[in-house]
């Protein structure tokens, strides 16, 4: 067996998230595994993280194992075969790695980019959120509150099951480019819907609907 690291991109609007689910076949992991199985590769696909429904990826790492007969083939051939089976997923790179490599546990950082503008066009609605920012300086101060190690249980979608809600955010900042705004979070991982809820809280502060003290209180809650 040969372990392979793959860097993939996908249009999240075609899927109900990354992780395989019993209630729907429309997951990134499920689509990847079905494509591999169709080529005689009976391997589980392990991702560096789980994305929510509708969330896109431009460079997510996954790994899977190749049987011996495929390990002797050029990886470019496998990449072409896989990409021919997808409409909403693109295999960007395939690299052989040591068999103890793990896409999730060896990941150093996850980066989430949230793109928005006050009035997205109808053609952008799957990729650009509708959001207006009143005070960009307040937005920056709000985002800075998230940096550090916190219990983010207040920013977790109700009903989600996690071993714990503690995550470490190393950077959180916003940029404005023309009509578009970008919010970035660098972290060791994210909870379900955490980023969207943090963005909404930071925007509420920037628009005078929430105070910085209230946000700090939310981050101090133990769940």
TrEMBL record:
- Enzyme class, first EC level, given as a word: isomerase
Q: What are this entry's molecular-function GO terms?
A: RNA binding; tRNA pseudouridine(38-40) synthase activity
Q: Which residues form the active site?
A: 52
List the catalysed reactions: uridine(38/39/40) in tRNA = pseudouridine(38/39/40) in tRNA
Pseudouridine synthase I TruA alpha/beta domain sequence ranges: 6-106, 143-221
Q: What is its EC number?
A: 5.4.99.12
Q: What is this protein called?
A: tRNA pseudouridine synthase
């Amino acid at each position: 067996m040969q372990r392979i690291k793959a860097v993939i991109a996908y249009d999240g609007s075609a899927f109900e998230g990354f992780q395989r689910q019993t209630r729907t076949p429309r997951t990134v992991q499920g689509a990847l595994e079905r494509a591999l199985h169709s080529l005689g590769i009976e391997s589980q696909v392990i991702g560096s993280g789980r994305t929510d429904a509708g969330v896109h990826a431009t460079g997510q790492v996954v790994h899977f194992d190749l049987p011996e007969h495929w390990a002797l083939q050029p990886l470019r051939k496998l990449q072409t075969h896989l990409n021919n089976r997808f409409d909403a997923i693109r295999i960007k790179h395939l690299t052989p790695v040591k068999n103890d490599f793990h896409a999730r546990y060896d990941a150093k950082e996850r980066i989430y980019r949230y793109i928005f503008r006050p009035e997205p066009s109808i053609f952008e609605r799957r990729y650009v959120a509708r959001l207006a920012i009143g005070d960009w300086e307040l937005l920056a101060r709000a985002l800075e509150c998230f940096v550090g190690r916190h219990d983010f249980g207040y920013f977790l979608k109700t009903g989600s099951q996690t071993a714990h809600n503690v995550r470490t955010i190393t950077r959180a900042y916003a940029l404005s480019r023309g009509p578009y705004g970008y919010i970035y979070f660098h972290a060791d991982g994210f909870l379900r819907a955490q980023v969207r809820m943090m963005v909404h809280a930071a925007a509420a502060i920037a628009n005078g609907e929430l105070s910085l003290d209230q946000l700090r209180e939310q981050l101090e809650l133990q769940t």
